[in-house]
Specification:
With 184 residues, this protein is mainly beta. It folds into 2 domains: 27 residues; 153 residues, Sandwich (Jelly Rolls), CATH 2.60.120.1560. The chain contains 2 helices and 14 strands; from the N terminus they run ααββββββββββββββ. Strands 1, 2, 6, 8, 9, 11 and 14 form a 7-stranded antiparallel β-sheet that branches. Strands 3, 7, 10, 12 and 13 form a 5-stranded antiparallel β-sheet that branches. A hairpin with a 6-residue loop joins strand 12 and strand 13. The radius of gyration is 19 Å and the shape is globular.
């Protein structure tokens, strides 16, 4: 009887600690975007060129929000220490709560390819200065995969990915949940 009571108390304490952590840490900590950075040996001229990788770094990030800078710098996490000739592959799952047309806004310097549910939504495979692209896509309720491939050749860089339900005024960063989309 005492053993059952102690186990019950330990379980309650563990649940309380998890609840406290959930409240203190940002939601994106629990719903991260997987990021795999591959440092290229040699120059990158386009997204589809063969990868000759020196090393890779894999981490999780709360959003795809890298500042326009000479170094890869995340708006919330700070500098990553990379300046040129690397690929980044991002992957996350999203749960669409409100069916409808969604606008995906991608700002990039250099090239990218965006896929949702493995379907190519948009791309620019060569080098360019910071440019904004928007894509309209109908999403049904349920789970969808989000994949973004990016490369940085040389010079300044920048990358951000945002979404909104068509008709909404405010864009949200990919990775940040809203009333219409939750990232998992």
């Amino acid at each position: 009887m005492i053993l059952r009571r102690n186990i019950f108390i330990v379980v309650l304490i563990a649940l309380a600690l998890l609840l406290i952590l959930r409240m203190l840490l940002p939601i994106s900590f629990f719903n991260p975007i997987k990021m795999k950075l591959s440092k290229q040996i040699g120059v990158i001229l386009q997204l589809d060129q063969p990868r000759n990788v020196d090393f890779t770094v894999t981490c999780v990030i709360p959003s795809i929000d890298f500042l326009e800078d000479a170094e890869l710098t995340h708006k919330k996490l700070g500098p990553f220490g990379f300046k040129q000739d690397f690929f980044i592959d991002f992957y996350t799952q999203m749960k669409v709560n409100r069916e409808g047309y969604y606008v995906f806004r991608l700002v990039s310097d250099d090239g990218f390819r965006l896929r949702i549910d493995r379907q190519k939504i948009g791309e620019f495979v060569f080098s360019r200065s910071l440019t904004t692209n928007e894509f309209l896509l109908y999403l049904q309720r349920g789970r969808h995969s989000f994949e973004l491939n990016y490369f940085q050749g040389f010079g300044k860089m920048g990358l951000s990915a945002e979404y909104r339900l068509n008709g909404d005024l405010r864009f949200h960063k990919v990775g940040e949940s809203s009333s219409s989309v939750c990232f998992e």
